[in-house]
Give the backbone structure.
Amino acid sequence: MIKLHDLEFEPFISEGEITKAIDRISEELNADYDGKIPVFIGVLNGSFMFASEVIKRFRSDCEVSFVKMGSYEGTETTGNVRTLVGLNQELKGREVVLLEDIVDTGNTLVEIDEILKKAEVASYKVATLFFKPAAYKKNVPVQIKGIEIPDKFIVGFGLDYDGLGRNLTQVYKRKENKMTNLVLFGPPGAGKGTQATILKDKYQLVHISTGDVFRFNIKNQTELGLSAKSYIDKGQLVPDEVTINMLNAEVEKNEGANGFIFDGFPRTEAQAEALSKYLESKGTEVHAMIALEVEDEILVERLLERGKTSGRPDDADEAVIRNRIKVYYNETAILKNYYQKQDKYYGVNGVGSIEEITERLSKVIDELMK
Ligand code: IMP
Ligand code: MG
């Protein structure tokens, strides 16, 4: 395993496999361009190693150029087209072979395609060392593919992570963190607390309740707790940044966990974004937002019942209860939409016995953990 900046990578494709792929690509090019004097164009920076290997194996005459994607130029009326820095060669009527280290979404390729068509090349082919079929969404044909890989981030053999890794002679893949992270949602009275406690034991997850984290930090006068308290004392909302930092600290404390159940967080899209960014930096993500769905009338009934024994004043007054439910739906609507867009929203019927509801939640989680 190696580390580049903050990320860990594990060996993925050996030098031998890469050499084999390059041999194959080179033989295809030798056959296709025998006696034709093609222009090889390597797309920098990533393709320098691959281009060098292919060109060394080419047996006829050829020309070699390297380009780099430049900035956008043009006017609003002509549309903006990116330039290729270094393309100072007349390509009209030439047979061009584009050498790419990797084709991922294909965005880069589409831009180069436009430029080459404008240059009136006689023909052009794309040869890429690595290709991600699951990520590729474009129609520009990629005729020659070295190694097809899943939609994962790789480094080495010219490819970098934030500038590092290009010199590695084999390819490494971003190390994945096999956690399951859930955002648990439910209106007041839905039985969220009960279910979180059961699920955390059943799946060995760490339950992070924002309320508990706040109380812990304030009670123990941690730096973040004091910061949060200063806002609370002024009657202001605690800024997202302070909240997310507290939660991050909580996640850090539980390194090696199977995953987390986030409870009471995120509450806003900004928080959801921050959480997703943070988990991404840990090589993981939010896998699902699971919401317990219970009709308002049943919630009101349950909470009034609880109020009789809990002594919580906010459980005793029907108007207060109804308002808490309304606030919940205003918040949830935004987040439901946010996670739904990513296909991560799961609504679960929250009416039934505790066991029945656990069963329904488990179905979702089992599927996620497969
Ligand atoms: P595109 O998404 O096909 O336009 O890929 C554009 C560029 O993203 C490539 O030329 C690479 O520089 C970079 N890239 C895509 N996938 C990876 C990867 O897995 N590792 C490193 N760089 C990548
Ligand atoms: Mg590239």
In short: Residues 318-341 form the longest helix (24 residues). The pocket of inosinic acid (ligand 1) is lined by residues 46, 102-109, 153-155, 159 (CB under 6 Å).
